[in-house]
Amino acid sequence: MSPNGQRQTYRRSIPGLASLPRPVYGRTESLPNRALTYRHSHPWVQLSYAIAGVLEVQTAAGRFIAPPQRAVWVPAGLPHRVSSTPHTEMRSLYIDCAAVSWAPAACRVLQVSPLLRELIRSFSTLPVEYAEDGEAGRLVQVLLDQLRSAPAVDLMLPLPHDARLQQLCRSLQQRPERQATLAQWSARLGVSEKTLSRLFQRETGLTFRAWRQRLRLLGALTPLEQGERVTDVALACGYDSTSAFIAAFRQQFDCTPGEFFRGS
């Protein structure tokens, strides 16, 4: 803890690899405090996966959130920054592009099945220079096959490029419970409500109301994963009642908060 009682944040180191020793390279980390990296990129694909805790990968396109049993796929060459909540148990895979030529060139969040979870766990026990023509090499091929078939999940908050929308979105990210309407924001930013609405739709693919709701619900994942009461999380996110929060959560994720984290 820092002197003012806040949990410390520290910069995670980034592996200084000139090249990968094998088509897939693994890294295991236990992160007791909130951690983040500088904005950077790799000449290979990165898969960031948390056994416990919540990971966030931020790119110019938006924020990609991965609670337990989800992972963020980061394409090669894409500038990004990774942050994590306290007590995160992280598994990172760095993958040679030639081994995943099928992969789309876009950042996304993947669902991690029980089989894929065990494959990642087993891979983390292998030596760095595993035998590619033996049992370890066959495990890696199955791991890559499972990554190829892993479904993408909608745990991404798109971020705008327009300076006016950026100001609005930064303010809401700092205080997601704010109840200011789009009309109030349009007056503050000096543009018409209709123009602001069109900008939001064009730059994020979401209405203002839908974007703010997704911001709140994605922000709720961290306190929920850490065991905070649903009622407390709902009020902190700006919802008037627990039932309204759960209804919005179900609409976004097709399940309740308890079901979302079951098995984590």
UniProtKB/TrEMBL annotation:
It holds the Pfam family HTH_18. Transmembrane segments: none annotated. This is Helix-turn-helix transcriptional regulator. The keyword Transcription regulation applies. Residues 166-263 form the HTH araC/xylS-type domain. CDD domains: cupin_NimR-like_N. InterPro entries: AraC-bd, Homeodomain-like_sf, HTH_AraC, HTH_AraC-typ_CS, RmlC-like_jellyroll, RmlC_Cupin_sf, Tscrpt_reg_AraC-type_HTH.
